[in-house]
């Protein structure tokens, strides 16, 4: 698998190293995202070599929409817009475009860095945006990301945000780990284009062991999880051990735990209603370079195809600004969960 790492494309955009207590992080200015995160020298995310472009969207910021837009076509205020198709096999526009742009360092210190960019006008996206993300380490709390977006144009625009980390339970093989996810519902996706294909169903119909923790051995996912619509919360089954309605600290929550009862916690604050959970897998010709099987847990403010459906889509008026937070920390069952 080391040969796979050697074939990754390289760039010259800088990386910024952060440290606080037992935590160490590396931030890529290309894509604005997280390259690596360690606790006591062990990984909390699956990393990639410094100087490489992020493989499989690893760690990048997903905006101004996360996930897929069918045919790259959507309407806003009665006007049709056509985005570049960036996933030709499925004829979709995927994950926005700021994750494929170079961000600039606006401020930094030993334990934080603030990156910013102005998007200008893009194909199918005639609304300029200013975005800023601050990555900050805390010796006790781990990594916190604060995202801010402002519409710098003179007309309203749609907006959605996501983040694409691959979680690692201190380096344990994925098949040895257990996933805990705060989700009441699964949004079914079609098997060809991975676009919404029906109303929400109970999450445990897809992952039946969510209540006690889903063992990941042999499990492949490219599924969307989130809240059950009002009036349907009691429909189906008992639900997850950490439900979307009562996750720790009021945040959406995902944890990947190794056989020693230790691992990683991802939390997502107000506005992040959805998770896309994706398994990179060489058996499906899409393994994570140098690792093979790896699990992405992607917090999103809206589900797939939201530019077309409008579901949880944010409307940014001219000059309006929104902010969001999420983060990653070390987790142990004894301390944090069971």
Automatic annotation (TrEMBL):
It comes from the Bacteria. GO terms for molecular function: carbohydrate binding; isomerase activity. GO terms for biological process: carbohydrate metabolic process. InterPro entries: Aldose_1/G6P_1-epimerase, Gal_mutarotase_sf_dom, GH-type_carb-bd, YihR-like. Signal peptide: none annotated. Pfam families: Aldose_epim. This is Aldose 1-epimerase family protein. It comes from Corynebacterium macclintockiae. The lineage of its organism: Bacteria, Bacillati, Actinomycetota, Actinomycetes, Mycobacteriales.
């Amino acid at each position: 698998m080391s040969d796979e790492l050697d074939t990754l494309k390289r760039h010259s955009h800088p990386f910024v190293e952060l440290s606080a207590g037992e935590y160490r992080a590396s931030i890529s200015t290309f894509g604005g995202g997280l390259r690596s995160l360690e606790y006591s020298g062990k990984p909390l995310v699956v990393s990639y070599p410094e100087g490489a472009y992020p493989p499989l969207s690893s760690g990048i910021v997903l905006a101004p929409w996360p996930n897929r837009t069918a045919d790259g076509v959507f309407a806003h205020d009665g006007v049709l817009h056509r985005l570049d198709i960036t996933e030709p096999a499925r004829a979709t526009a995927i994950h926005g475009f700021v994750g494929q742009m170079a961000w600039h360092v606006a401020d930094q210190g030993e334990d934080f860095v603030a990156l910013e960019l102005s998007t200008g006008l893009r194909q199918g996206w005639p609304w300029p945006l200013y975005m800023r993300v601050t990555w900050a380490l805390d010796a006790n709390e781990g990594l916190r990301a604060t995202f801010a977006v402002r519409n710098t144009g003179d007309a309203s625009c749609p907006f959605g945000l996501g983040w694409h980390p691959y979680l690692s339970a201190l380096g344990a093989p994925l098949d040895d780990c257990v996933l805990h996810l705060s989700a009441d519902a699964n949004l079914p996706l079609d098997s060809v284009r991975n676009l919404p294909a029906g109303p929400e169903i109970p999450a445990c119909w897809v992952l039946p062991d969510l209540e006690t923790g889903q063992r990941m051995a042999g499990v492949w996912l490219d599924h969307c999880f989130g809240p059950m619509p009002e009036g349907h919360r009691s429909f189906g089954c008992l639900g997850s051990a950490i439900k979307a309605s009562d996750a720790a600290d009021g945040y959406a929550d995902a944890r990947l735990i190794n056989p020693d009862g230790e691992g990683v916690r991802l939390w997502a604050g107000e506005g992040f209603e959805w998770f896309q959970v994706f398994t990179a897998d060489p058996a499906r010709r899409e393994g994570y370079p140098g690792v093979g099987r790896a699990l992405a847990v992607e917090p999103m403010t809206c589900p797939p195809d939201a530019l077309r459906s409008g579901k949880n889509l944010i409307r940014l008026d001219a000059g309006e600004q929104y902010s969001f937070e999420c983060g990653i920390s070390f987790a142990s069952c004894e301390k944090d969960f069971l």
